[in-house]
Amino acid sequence: MPKKTFRAMVVEESGEKHFSRKILEKSFADLPEGEVLVKVLWSSLNYKDALSASGNRGVTRKYPHTPGVDAAGVVEKSSSELFRAGDEVIVTSYDLGMNTSGGFAEYIRVPAAWVVPLPAGLDLRESMIFGTAGFTAGMSVAALTENISPEKGEILVTGATGGVGCMAVAILSGLGYSVVAVSGKPEAAEFLSRLGASRILSRDEACEGSGKPLLKGIWAGVVDTVGGEILVSAVKSTNLQGVVTCCGNVASPELPLNVFPFILRGVSLVGIDSQNCPMDFRKKIWQKLATQWRIVQLTDLCREVCLADLGGEIDLILRGGQKGRVLVRI
Asked: Within 10 Å of residue 219's Cβ, how many Cβ atoms?
């Protein structure tokens, strides 16, 4: 091991419901048990990271803590026969960055069962532009493309300027789908158009508040990242045999919905759980992101920051101001 300590963001509880973030030196003894020690080169910022970094007990129970649900780097040491020193790997999801010391650090130690070999076609930096957001978008795309071809009609993507949303817009448009993006940021129209969105709707346009049990069928499919009333309107507006994926609740975790879209139109509502998805399927999604679903404009989707500058980006995403992805150079 090249040194005895390493740099990491540490979130500390400095008073009742008051948390501070610092870049500190940590000991390798502070890391949890695990078969694989990874030198982290890149990470990325997700909404869950911002919640953990601000003291949200629903994400992280105990502090001090190092957030970061994403990490990509090189295996430093492994007691598992699955990995050897020097292997390039991705670690996302499971408990990383939640209650296990995460990727906003120069090193992580994790179970081998959490580790994905870097797929051919991606480098480590690119894998973290995707990160959990891109992986979640990939799972949503898989659920849609299994049953819906581009000829079936328009695909609605809500929360389109966020990490999952912008990735879904880019992947689906690259596959030939006509994508309609929903955003509450009028200034993001050019950004979404560059990613391939054919139309852009405001939140008000996407949220039909009449309370009708069923609306005119418009969408062949939906990638919803926000939940709440926008998801309700999207489900009610989905065409026969359409597919709606659901992966977020930033608008609301409540879903005041009736059964008519499901029993009269055969609409499918598919929950997306990227945290606990099986490893075989996880590897398949990463391979598709590296090949068939590769995004031509991938580098345009991110801003790169260093670990020391991450605090401002955390505050920005909590205010709903993030556009695209924040790539973290460790």
From this structure: 21
Task: Report the predicted TM-score, pTM, of the whole model to 2 decimal places.
Answer: 0.94
- What pLDDT, on the 0 to 100 scale, is given for residue 295? 94
Retrieve residue 226's tokens: 């926000």
- Which residue type occupies 267? V
The CATH label, of 3.90.180.10, 1.10.3720.10, 1.10.260.40, 3.90.226.10, for the domain at 5-118+298-329 is: 3.90.180.10
Q: Which amino acid is at 142?
A: A
Q: Give CATH superfamily name and number for 133-271.
A: NAD(P)-binding Rossmann-like Domain (3.40.50.720)
- 23 and 105 in contact (C-beta within 8 Å)? no
At 234, list the tokens: 């999207």
pLDDT of residue 1: 53
Helices (H), the chain: 47-53, 124-145, 163-174, 189-195, 203-206, 228-236, 260-264, 279-290, 310-318
pLDDT at site 109: 98
Query: What is Dmax (Cα atoms) for the chain?
Result: 64
